[in-house]
Description:
The structure is a single chain. The chain is mainly β. The chain has one domain (1-29). The protein has strands spanning 4-9, 15-21, 38-39. A 3-stranded antiparallel beta sheet has the order 2-1-3, with no helix packed on it.
Amino acid sequence: MRSFRLAVSNKAGESLIFFEKLPSQTILVSLSAKDNITTR
């Protein structure tokens, strides 16, 4: 399997989280409910 990247930004366009996930890794992310989150 190939790795993939996930970028999470708030409505202001600020990058909150960026990571590259490998098949052997599990990544958990917690975000504030008051932020409008989009994934791309």
